[in-house]
Amino acid sequence: MQNRRGFTLVETLVVMVIIVVLSSFLIPTLPDVTSRRLKSTARRISGVISHIYDRSAATQLTYRLTFDLKANSYYVSLLNKQNSFEETELPFAKRSELANGVDITEITTAYQGRVTEGKAYIHFFPGGFAERSVIHITDDAKNSMSLIVKPLTGRVIIRKGYVDVADKAA
Length: 170
Hints:
Elements: H1 9-26, H2 33-59, E1 63-68, E2 73-79, E3 85-88, E4 96-97, E5 102-109, E6 113-115, E7 119-125, E8 129-130, E9 133-139, E10 144-149, E11 156-160
C-alpha cells in the first residue's frame, strides 16, 4: 500500500479551476463601496432639500441651504427678523459633512450662477418655492451624480453623470 501525502497535480488544478469560475461570478456582484457612498450622499442631500422645502412652505419662513465646497459640508440657515440668515438645525437637516471620498464639485443656482469654490446657497421661500438648482457630486472613482431641484415642487431628481443646467432633459 502506498502512503499518500498531499494532493496530486490534477486535484490541485481542478480546485483552482473551480475557484476561478466561482470568483468570475462573485467578484462583479460585490458592491462598489465608493459608488454606494455617492448614491447614499445624493439621497441624503435630496431628503434634506425636500424637508427644508416642506418646512418653509408649512411655516411660511425663508430658509437657506448652504453648501461649503471647501469643507465639503452643508447646513441650514433661517432668515431672522433682522433680515439676515443665521444657522439653525432642523430635525432632519443638521450640519453635515459628505461621506469620505465624495465631493461637491459644482452647484448652479438661479441667484449665484455656477459655483465651483467657496459657498453656494439654495433658497427656500414661503408659499412653496425653491430656487432652481443643480448640485454635482463625484466620488474618488470619478463617478458623478447630478441633483436637480425643481422650484415649484421642491422635488429633487437624481441623475447619474453630469447634467448641464441648459440641458432640456433636466
